[in-house]
Each structure stands twice: as C-alpha cells, then as structure tokens.
Amino acid sequence: MQLKRTKRSKTGLAAVLGPGSDWRRVLSFIPADKYTVIHGQCLEVGVGGFILGGGINALGATARHGWAAENVIEMEMVLADGSYATVNKHFARIKRLNGKSEKNHFSDENDLWFALRGAGTSFGIVTEFLYTVYERPETFPILIPIDLSRIEDIRNIEKAAANTKKYLFTCYSTRRYFDGVFPYNLLPYNLPYSMKIGGKHFVLINKLQGLLGMSSTTPFVLITVTQVQGASGRFTDPIPVVNYLKNHKIKMGVEDPRIINLLTSLAGYLTVGNYEDGFLTLKEQQILGTLNIASAAMYGMKNSIGFGNLFLNHPIFGQNSKLSPEKVKAKTGCDFCWFSFNFDNHLRLRNYSRVAISPEFGVFQWDFSCLFRNKNSRCPQAVRDLKRLISHDESIPKISQFQYGNTPSCEDIDFGSRYWGSHYPRLARIKTVWDPKNVFHHCHSVGSTEQFCCPY
Ligand SMILES: Cc1cc2nc3c(=O)[nH]c(=O)nc-3n(C[C@H](O)[C@H](O)[C@H](O)COP(=O)(O)OP(=O)(O)OC[C@H]3O[C@@H](n4cnc5c(N)ncnc54)[C@H](O)[C@@H]3O)c2cc1C
Fold first, then answer.
1. Which of the listed residues 337, 363, 391 is the one where a domain comes to its end?
2. Considering only CA atoms, which residue is closest to atom 47 of ligand 1?
3. In 18-158, at which residue ranges do the beta strands (DSSP E only) sit?
4. How many Cβ atoms from other residues are within 10 Å of residue 173's Cβ?
5. Is residue 230 part of a domain?
C-alpha cells in the first residue's frame, strides 16, 4: 500500500491499493480522522470486490464524494486472454502474451473503463488500483434517539431529508435481540431491547426512554445525521442539526448537544478505530458461537410509503409488534434482527452515464438483516418473505428493484437488470468484446444465468 502525491488525482493525492487488502488495513494506513476514502462500512469487506462492484459507503462518504468506482483513477489487470493491461478513462494499454504492446481507445461498444467500474469482476482480474484520497477527515454522523411510532414520523424525516443537501439521514431500529444476548459492538447503532446481565434479564429500552423523558411506548429509533456538504470536521455539529430536526417536527429524545456528543463519542469509543466495525468482534463470536446472516435490501424505492407501514406494523418484525422477543425467536429462529433505512437524495444527483451501476435509484433505501445460529431454522425464509412483501407489491412506489450495493439477490428477479438496471444490455455487449469465451463467469456475473446465489 502506498499514499502518493499525483496530479492524476483530482485531489492531488492517491493511494495504490492491492485488491487482496481489506478496509481495516487500508484505514489503519490512511486514517479516517485525517483522510477520506470510500470504503465498506464493515471493515472486513475486501478492497477488490467492493470497488469492482461499485462500492457504497452509506454513512456519508458516498453522498459527499461518490461511489468507490467513481474514485478509481487507474487499474492494472489481467484480461481474459491472459494479456496484461493498464486501464484508465482514456485507454487500455495492453501487453500481449507475445510481447507486443498496443493502446486501445474506447468507444461506446468496447468501453472497458465503464464496465470495470460496477461490473468489474466479470471482465478480468485487477491486480492494483490507483484510488482517490481526500485530504480531510471523514465526517462521522451524530446519533440521536427519536420517537418513531407513526407513519407521519417517517414522512417528517423524509421531508427533512428532501429539504436539504447538507445532511444525510439514516435510521436504525432497536428492537431486535430476541434471545437476550447482546453483541456489545453493535451498541452504537442499535441499543438492545433487553439484556441478560449476571443471569438477570433487564428490559433496557423502556427504562432508557423513561430517563430521556420520551413518552412513546414503542422502542425508540436512532437517527444518524452526517454532514455531507460544506466544511465539517470529524463529527457533524449537533446544534444546527437539532434545530433543523425540530423545524421538521421530529420528536427527539435528546436535544442537548452535549448529551448527543456524549452518545456519539460513546459510539466511537465502542467501535474499533472510531468507525463502524464488522457485525461481531472475535470475542463475541466465541461467546455467541457461529452465526449466519440473512439480509434483504432495496435501494430503488421512490419513497417510504409502503415500507413505513411494514417497518411499524409487520406482525413479527414490526417496531409496534406486541410479540415478545422470545416469541419472535420461536416463530422465526432468528437470534438478532434490525432494520435500517436511509433517505439519500444525493445518489440521484450523480452522473451515472460513466459507471456501470444502475442509474435507477430511489431517494429512499432500506435494509433488514438477521443473524441466526441454527442453519435449519426458518430465519432466512422469514427475511425473504418480508422482502417479497415489498418487492412484489406493485402498489408500493418504486423506481426500480435496485438492491444494496454489491450483494447477491436471493429472489427470483433477474439480477442483471436489478443490479445494473438500464446499463445491463450495454454491459453484455462490452463483455462480448473483452471476454467472448466468458472466462470470468461466476454467480451474478454479466451474462450469468445462475440467479440463486444465496447459501440458504
Ligand atoms: C458484512 C458485510 C458488509 C458489507 N458492507 C458493504 C458496504 O458498506 N458497501 C458496499 O458497497 N458493499 C458492502 N458489502 C458487499 C461487499 O462489497 C461485497 O460482498 C464484495 O463483493 C466484497 O468483496 P471482497 O473482495 O471482500 O469479496 P470476495 O468474495 O473475495 O470477492 C467478491 C467477488 O469479487 C471478485 N473479485 C475480488 N477481487 C477481485 C479482483 N481483484 N479482480 C477481479 N475480481 C475480483 C471475486 O472473484 C468474487 O466474485 C458488504 C458485505 C458484507 C458481507
């Protein structure tokens, strides 16, 4: 790994990254309190697959600086015929196996640069990335507990998000720890509904709500707000955010900026390297045993209508459900579940004509994830059922079926159109130029007919 000054980067600074690295290693070399790079939120995510699939950082860095794919300056790679290439936005310089070199300029039908940035794993093996580095701290969100028990509350956040380009808003549900065991490093994002301490069972959320003076009987939701425009430091300033949220009738459990900063610092303290970590630390994995994950996500939503109702009132997972955590576990086999949802108007402002990521985004995005120990449980099916309720319901407004960046789909909706949207036919044509024998073929590659890529 190398950090270097170069005029080829629009910031004057770039990193040379090996694709086998992961974001934990990259951030320990290029620390986020000094620099910003677009990286996976879970730091175990690998550099190669993340950048080549588009790469989104949904906590703010992408809203400010774009997708990972938009921040690549040049790639070194091996092509399907075994030759070696240096590829940038102007050309591919190719060294053939017979020792000859050639320079290949791109047209619409052979634009490898376009294809590599969003569908890269279908076009070759990248051995090195030259990647943009921003010489400013990555701005961390602040966390505020809010009352969110009615559709109207969700609509208020949606309006708040639509009325500013300065902030990015994400909400995390809290009611999710169905067996009473709580992985501590998730504390910053989702407080446990209840917890076993020294063999005793404590119901935490209601107690905390009482302490914060919140009236709702529904467990509160954490809203994270990141400043993504204008000068900002390591943390988002809470004072203007509180005023802004108040003006949009958002019911906050805490308005005192000192307490918000304290909560946010606690979040930073509890996460490794002051950043969102993987789902579980190694120690927690030892305590909890092997866990599997089932997730559902959609980023192509036109608005929160439809999802909001499900988030609040789903009979099993809904925020207002009266089922006890034990009952939810007994019904589904899921050990931990959580919702998160974003209001991101920034994705839609980008120019997607030069990257191979679907241009058909919505301003509203959600995801739902469950961890489960028993592989034979109903948990993955329960997650899939929840997603089907939204994706197959035509009355729920959507722009597309686009899903969360870089992840396989477990649904019977064509992955190619789902992931690359209207760019897919062009990608298929570019594939015939650079990989006519379909050497780089894997589940959910361009041209792949394998549609079911999920283990459960
Ligand atoms: C816990 C978790 C959190 C995640 N968070 C995010 C997130 O915040 N944002 C986001 O956008 N995505 C996220 N993802 C999705 C993630 O980006 C994809 O799973 C990505 O494919 C991971 O890449 P990898 O290199 O780690 O994985 P691998 O499984 O090693 O690779 C994935 C695919 O890319 C191919 N590949 C890898 N390196 C190269 C290379 N150098 N050249 C050619 N092909 C290559 C592999 O052959 C494989 O087909 C997350 C995934 C998980 C499991």
1. 391
2. 121
3. 72-78, 84-87, 91-95, 101-105, 125-132, 142-146
4. 24
5. yes
Q: Which residue range(s) make up the domain with 156?
A: 142-391
Clarify whether residues 122 and 152 are in a common domain: no
In terms of domains, do 296 and 198 share one? yes
Matching residue, tokens 């500013």: 164
Distances in Å between the alpha carbon of 129 and those of 11, 78, 304?
A: 16, 13, 37
Give the pairing of strands 84-87 and 91-95: antiparallel
Give the tokens for residue 410.
């477990």
Instruction: Please give the structure tokens belonging to residue 454.
Output: 């999920």
Distance CA 421, CA 418 (A): 6
Q: Which two tokens stand for residue 423?
A: 């760019």
**Do residues 34 and 137 touch, judged by C-beta distance below 8 A?**
yes
Of 11 and 41, the structure prediction assigns the larger pLDDT to: 11
Residue 419 within a domain: no
Residue 271 has pLDDT above 50, yes or no: no
- Check pocket membership of 405 for ligand 1, CB cut-off 6 A: yes
Q: Which atom number of ligand 1 is nearest to the Cα of residue 19? A: 41
Residues 211 and 331 in one domain: yes
Who's near 260: CB < 8 A, 6+ residues apart?
142, 143, 144, 238, 242, 254
Cα of 45 from ligand 1 centre, angstroms: 6
Distance 49 CA to ligand 1 centre (A): 3
Q: Whose CA is nearest to atom 17 of ligand 1?
A: 50
Residues 111-137 pLDDT 10s = 999 999 999 999 999 999 999 999 999
**Is pLDDT at 270 greater than 50 in this prediction?**
no
